[in-house]
Amino acid sequence: MVVHSTSERVLAGLDPEQRSAVTAPAGPVCILAGAGTGKTRAVTSRIAHRALTGEISPRHVLAVTFTARAAAEMRSRLTALGVPGVQARTFHAAALRQVRYFAPRLLDGRAMPELLDSKVRLVTLAAGKVGLRADRAGARDLAGEIEWAKSSLVEPGEYVVAAAKALRDTPYEPAKVADVFAAYEKLKRSGGVIDFEDMLRAAVWGIEEHPDVAEQVRAQYRHFVVDEYQDVNPLQQRLLEAWLGGRDDLTVVGDASQTIYSFTGATSAYLVDFPRRHRGATVVRLVRDYRSTPQVVGLANAVISQARGTEARLRLELVGQRPAGPEPDLRIFTDEPAEAAAVAARCRALVDAGTPAREIAVLFRTNAQSEAYEKALTEAEVPYQVQGAERFFERAEVRQAMVALRAATRSIPGETPLPVAVVEALGAVGWAPDSPPAGGAARERWEALAALVQLAEEYAATPPVLPIGPAASVERPVTLADFTDELARRAAAQHAPTVEGVTLASLHSAKGLEWDAVFLVGLSEGTLPTTYAKTPEQVEEERRLLYVGITRAREWLWLSYASARSPGGRARRPCRFLPQLDRSGGTERAGAGGVRRTAERRRTQIVSCRICGATLLAGPDRKVGRCATCPSDIDEELHERLREWRRRVAGGQRVPAYVVFTDATLVALAERRPSRPQDLTAIAGIGPRKLGLYGEAVLALVAGAAVDEICPEKTFEISS
């Protein structure tokens, strides 16, 4: 009776879908869990319910996650539910524990070899052995390719074909990468060390090739749970199958719409194919979103509803469960410095209004974008922390570049235009202003140094007033020495330690996290989606990145992009994935006879906030002519007269009041106080028809006329 009562408490408060997941029978279970739908609660409750009802023993459960933080949270929740003792670990931690335990048996009495913390040093040596000179960024990219290959169960001799089939953007010629891969494996063996992929392979080998090991492991672990199953790679799947040994007590949890790590070898194929691979599997869909407001959920659904490809087959339409909140704030700025300054100002306002800085995040596509926001937040005196990456001025390539820039002040003539001087100086560290190199780390390094060139262009375009002589202050062109001093000042300002601050993070680093307020910035074509997304599959992964970013927000969401990188720069288009930002109107229709015709391009008037200058995209904001967060200068007395006039007109026509004018239009009229017909038509929602019907009356009311003069309390009808 006590056990029954305890298990019922586990079920208390679960929604119907969560309860279905928790009480599903033993065997293969696939929980498709959308963002914010309580998947951790569901899966821990499933383990607890089965344990408390006596169906399973906690010590026979292995729950696998992808981060140590997620594993710790799972253990904590299970303990709180009265089920301690469940093994919740990452794939690597579980494999390491098993390999260490069985090493004497597998290695003829020898201990497990030393585990490499990083591949970079050995990869650099391997590259040298095959005649390839790789800097640190190049070595990191080579290490990434080796990790992808080993995670994908690809051997050195198979790499060239496999990389071509997977459309890998290799950092060097594929055959040369294969040579480095082979040399790395030899160096590793001769040094008596293993890497993380070797450890997973050793765990697989120990089970597949040693029946006694397999028997002991499978006697220990009989029930398996895998979180974030869309991120499993072939090597991890092989280990999971070795653990299972043909058994089927497996629960997997995942969301195909959050598949964003395919470049590492992760694939959602195992999640997508789960019902086919496991006949009779129970499939449960969790769609009730408890994290975000319905407004945020609606935007997320709109973005992912356009998804195509394999992952879209498991697309979930979320249903918001929280009370209504503010609409997502969509803004366009003239350039990136203006965008960063506006974001910092809004962060400052949120913090001043009581939002903890730790509950605010600024998310971007690449780490190189962080510098502008680090600077803007510093100037706004808003503390911040960089998640998953070093601060811009702490990065090794940036520190190296600053040394090169300082050294170049002694060799480059002072009259050299600053951008030219910076490009010339960066040549000493191997940077060139041409196309960025292949390979993620090398490209990231290139973009970080390109950000310094952009800073130089901006700094040269707005030179500060510099003192010359004891009393005079005049403007003069800035020099390379001035710029290096400015960089040193920024670096010093941004090194100040902070206990709590606004989170700056890439979209990849933000996975699994959430905040009250989220700023998604830099949403322009070429950045998101990145120019490096060439195939339809890569473009769809960029869409999913935006979806992940949107679903990080609980309450307040800001989306923005700059129409140019720097003042006066080349115009850019907004991110194609945002329906609200798509102004092309270039959808296709099928005409007569099945001929497809392109619809006429729709012209959209750009409306800017008359207070702060930001481009307005939300309908109510465009009507009023200002951002919802900017101060109102409404004429309250005029607003009341307009409301009374509308009431009488609507009553006479026997129509709802909004048919005459919406509330937003009345606010716009009372704020803008138009004096001419063209002023009226400048307000969104007032076209020629309403101008003809109501224009004269509205202008008279704005000029001070009483409602009784314009519209007596009697029936008001529109002539047919």
What this model shows, in words?
- This protein is α/β, with parallel strands linked by helices.
- Helices cover 46% and strands 12% of the residues.
- The strands form 6 sheets. It has an 8-stranded mixed beta sheet with strand order 13-16-12-17-18-11-22-21, with helices on both faces. Strands 3-2-6-7-1-8 form a 6-stranded parallel beta sheet, sandwiched between helices. The chain has a two-stranded parallel ribbon with strand order 4-5.
- β6, α12 and β7 form a beta-alpha-beta unit.
- The chain is flat.
- The C terminus is likely disordered.
Number of helices: 30
Give a quick account of the main beta sheet: strands, pairing sense, barrel closure: 8 strands, mixed
Main β-sheet, spatial strand arrangement:
13-16-12-17-18-11-22-21
Strand content: 5-15%
Helix content: 40-55%
EC number: 5.6.2.4
Domain UvrD-like helicase ATP-binding: 12-293
Pfam families: HRDC, UvrD-helicase, UvrD_C
Domain HRDC: 632-712
In short:
Helix content is 46%, strand content 12%. By secondary structure, it is α/β, with parallel strands linked by helices.
Break the fold down into its secondary structure elements and pairings.
Blueprint: H1 2-11, H2 16-23, E1 29-33, H3 39-52, E2 61-65, H4 68-80, E3 87-90, H5 91-106, E4 114-115, H6 120-129, H7 136-151, H8 159-165, H9 174-191, E5 193-194, H10 196-209, H11 211-220, E6 223-226, H12 234-244, E7 250-254, H13 269-272, H14 274-277, E8 282-286, E9 288-289, H15 294-304, E10 319-320, E11 329-333, H16 336-352, E12 360-364, H17 370-379, E13 384-387, H18 396-408, H19 418-426, H20 440-461, E14 466-468, E15 472-474, H21 480-494, E16 502-506, H22 507-510, E17 515-520, H23 536-550, E18 553-562, E19 588-590, E20 596-598, E21 607-608, E22 615-616, H24 619-624, H25 636-653, H26 657-660, H27 663-672, H28 677-681, H29 688-702, H30 707-710
Parallel strand pairs: 1-7, 1-8, 2-3, 2-6, 4-5, 6-7, 9-10, 11-18, 12-16, 12-17, 13-16, 17-18
Antiparallel strand pairs: 11-22, 14-15, 19-20, 21-22
